[in-house]
Design brief:
single chain; alpha/beta; 12 strands
Length: 280
């Protein structure tokens, strides 16, 4: 490796460390399968943690489908700064976001990169985004267990833990199991499983309809010996592109997100999590 390349890599690693040292807890959001609402869960858990008075950042490393900016209503805002220091986008005073989508002039453009380019982009975000002091950094990943997840695990060995998002559908549960096994192989604590889109209320008779089956994620959590964080029902307020700022109100889904956020806050505050200790 040429000396210049080596020096640049060392400089990037030092920059990453200086950014991360100001962040207390780093949460990885995983889903083995696409389409289970992982980004929706990441955004709403982050907003619920912010509602509890925490300073929260969301890092969107889904390079091929960066949707956090859209879901938080700041898709028209772009990064300010230079290559060495980028200011994250402020959603509200204690909630910040950053991701490749905020650096693109045309948000609908396709990112067509192989592994090394993706690794470099993620490392650059970690090194250059000036989060300041945060209580939580929530990292939204693409589906699966590929380059993006491995880059984060290598760059942030002190990850607090991972949250697995799934539906109760059999194929989604199969891939959620793979995400748990990935965490175990990588030495990442699994904080629990969230079952998204668990049910919907019939608008006519108000009966509960379990579209994908019932209790699949809870049974998987029990089988694997990890925590079950809760169920998120289908709901119009969650389906919309941007979360409303009108409070929790009578929304069962938003109440569920707040309960999950409170449980996570207690779990990571009162328990020293190392490796797979949360799974024992």
């Amino acid at each position: 490796m040429p000396m210049q390349d080596f020096e640049r890599r060392v400089e990037r690693r030092l920059a990453i460390r200086s950014r991360l040292d100001k962040i207390d807890k780093k949460l990885l959001i995983l889903s083995g399968k696409g389409g289970v609402g992982k980004t929706t869960v990441a955004v709403h858990i982050s907003e619920a943690l912010a509602d509890l008075g925490n300073h929260v950042g969301i890092l969107d490393i889904d390079l091929h489908g960066p949707n956090v900016a859209k879901m938080t209503g700041v898709q028209d805002m772009h990064f300010e700064g230079d290559a060495k220091e980028i200011q994250p986008i402020e959603v509200r005073p204690n909630l910040l976001i950053a991701g490749i989508g905020s650096a693109m002039k045309q948000p609908e453009d396709a990112i067509i990169w192989r592994g090394p380019m993706k690794n470099m982009a993620i490392e650059s975000l970690l090194a250059s985004v000036n989060w300041g002091d945060l209580d939580y950094l929530v990292i939204d990943t693409p589906p699966g267990t590929g380059d993006e997840q491995l880059t984060i695990v290598k760059s942030i060995p002190e990850l607090t833990g991972a949250i697995i998002v799934t539906t109760a559908q059999a194929v989604a549960l199969l891939d959620a199991r793979r995400s748990v096994l990935f965490c175990r192989k990588m030495g990442i604590a699994v904080l629990g499983i969230v079952e998204n889109m668990s049910s919907l209320e019939c608008p006519h008779c108000h009966a509960e309809i379990t579209v994908f089956g019932s209790r699949g994620a809870q049974e998987l959590a029990r089988e694997l010996g990890i925590g079950f964080l809760g169920r998120i029902p289908f709901e119009e307020s969650i389906r919309s592109d941007k979360h409303s700022d009108n409070g929790i109100g009578n929304s069962p889904a938003l109440r569920a997100f707040h309960t999950i956020a409170q449980d996570l806050a207690r779990q990571v505050t009162t328990t020293t999590i190392e490796g797979n200790s949360s799974e024992q």
